[in-house]
C-alpha cells in the first residue's frame, strides 16, 4: 500500500467514527424559561414533569428534537414554608413546538414568521433562539 493511501484510509476511518458518533438523540440545547412577570409560571417539556418558575426568575430546560413546551402562568400564593407556589387555575397558558438540530434550538413560529413570536404574555426566541419569556401582563390575580 502506498504511504499516501494509508493516511487517507486513517483519515476516512476517523471521519466515519466522528459522523457515526453524532446522532439525533444527542441533538439538543439547554435554554431558559424566563419569568419577568409577578405570576408563578409552570413549564413542562414533552408532557413530562413540570418545573416551577417563581416571579422574576428563570429556569433552564433541555430541548431535544423535536419537542413541545407547555407553559402556564398562575397567580402566586405563599405555601406552607413561605415559598411562592401556583394558586388556582392558569390565567394564561399555551403550548409551543420546538426544533433542536445539533446545537441549534428554536421555537417553530409557523405562520408568525421569523424572529420573535408567541402570544401575549409569552415571547419566544428572545433574548436568544430557544428561550421563552413570560412577560408582564394585565392584573388578573387578587393582591397578595
Describe this protein with a few key phrases.
144 residues; mainly beta; five-stranded antiparallel sheet; four-stranded mixed sheet; 9 strands
Written overview of the protein:
The chain is mainly beta and 144 residues long. 13% of the residues lie in helices and 46% in strands. The protein is built from one helix and nine strands. It has one helix spanning 3-21; strands spanning 28-35, 40-45, 50-53, 57-64, 67-78, 84-101, 104-107, 122-124, 132-134. The protein has a five-stranded antiparallel β-sheet, with no helix packed on it. Strands 4-1-9-8 form a four-stranded mixed β-sheet, with no helix packed on it. Strand 2 (40-45) and strand 3 form a beta hairpin. The longest helix is centred in the first third of the chain and has 19 residues, at 3-21. The protein starts with a helix and ends in a 10-residue tail after the last strand.
Question: Concise description?
Answer:
This protein is mainly beta and 144 residues long. 13% of the residues lie in helices and 46% in strands.
| CA distance, first residue to last residue | 80 Å
Helices and strands, in order, run as: HEEEEEEEEE
**Arithmetic mean pLDDT:** 79
Question: Beta fraction of the residues?
Answer: over 45%
The shape is globular
Rounded Rg: 21 Å
Q: In which range does the helix fraction lie?
A: 10-25%
Count the helices. How many? 1
Structural class based on helices, strands and sheet pairing = mainly beta
The largest sheet, given as strand count, sense and whether it forms a barrel, is: 5 strands, antiparallel
Strand tally is 9
- Identify the strand order in the major beta sheet: 3-2-5-6-7
Q: Please mark out the parts with pLDDT under 50 across 5 or more consecutive residues, or reply none.
A: 8-25
